[in-house]
Amino acid sequence: MRVEPPPRVELLRGRFGCAMTVDVEEWYHTCLAPRYVRPERRPALAEELDRLLPELLLRFAEARCSGTFFVLGEVAERLPHRVREIAAAGHEVASHGYLHLRAADRTPGAFGRDLERSRKLLEDLVGGPIWGFRAPEWSLRRLSNQRLPLVAAAGYLYDSSLAPSPPAGSFDNPRFASLLTWRGGARLLEFPPLTWGGFFRLPAGSWTGRLASPGTLVKAVREHGAGGGLPVAVVHPWEVSGRPTPGRLTGLAWFVHETGRDGYDGRFRQLLAGCGWGSIQSASRLDVGTWRTGAQPVVDGAFRIAG
Asked: Hey, how many other C-beta atoms are within 10 angstroms of the C-beta on 293?
């Protein structure tokens, strides 16, 4: 495989909204439990999404919010009716890959096939194009990752995988919405997840986000937006179930999964009520009406290259 240099990064500024995103996966889809994420090694485990997704859609409806649902392909294959319900409720459906495996654990060829498989599956279910991708566990990690341009090659318009802080990502990753362009001409919009805590760049999702008060996160959203950014929040259905985890996790997997879950259901409701959340597509004001087969969607002028 030819090694490509990192892409050119052009910062975007504009009249953005704020985006709430949901990683649609079961409680056991954690890369810290390898035998759970590989179907051929997975023991019989309790599954909750068929019950949790309608409950989550109801919360969004009550808060009069919409969002982007990054759906795992194996979940979509098992629960196609739930994916259609997400789209029918006015939310954006995007891809979380087909299997919840780290990008670095797969060959570029296998990663590329996974990208295309999940996109085509979701497009068949919702009857329209899938624009966005997020790697399991933010596992593209860095701008220099040779698998990142494969996201553009697979037909996606944007990525939301590059966390701007370690260990999930890197301080070198952009904090704000950016346009990535590779030497060969491939282009990809990057919408990184929101952080809080100033210099420490603590993720607004996962256990660090669950420990923060809703007011703290709303403040981070407003500050990011005031700086011309597009705040992207992240949640998982199991985080807001209000119920104990129905299976056993140990070690670091348990810590990441369980820390801050106590009472988070109520805090998430406050967070939903605290901002006018939309999908990534609506918050970025992407104009995809000019889409033609093989053509790149265009931006409607809602944002510009900073410079």
From this structure: 5
Instruction: List the pLDDT tens digit at each of the 307 positions of the chain.
Output: 577 799 999 999 888 999 999 999 999 999 999 999 999 999 999 999 999 999 999 999 999 999 999 999 999 999 999 999 999 999 999 999 999 999 999 999 999 999 999 999 999 999 999 999 999 999 999 999 999 999 999 999 999 999 999 999 999 999 999 999 999 899 999 999 999 999 899 999 999 999 999 999 999 999 999 999 999 999 999 999 999 999 999 999 999 999 999 999 999 999 999 999 999 999 998 766 543 333 444 444 455 555 4
Please report which residue ranges of the chain form alpha helices under DSSP H: 34-37, 49-63, 73-78, 80-88, 108-126, 148-153, 206-211, 214-226, 251-258, 264-274, 280-284
Predicted model pTM: 0.94
Give the C-alpha separation, 13 to 177, whole Å.
7
Question: Around 164, how many Cα atoms within 13 Å sit in the side-chain half-sphere?
Answer: 21
Please say whether the beta carbons of 285 and 15 come within 8 A: yes
CA atoms of 134 and 217, how far apart (whole Å): 21
Q: Are 160 and 135 contacting, i.e. CB atoms less than 8 angstroms apart?
A: no
DSSP assigned state of 212: S
Q: For the chain, what's the residue count?
A: 307
CB 184 within 8 A of CB 176: no
Contact 4, 149 (CB under 8 A): yes
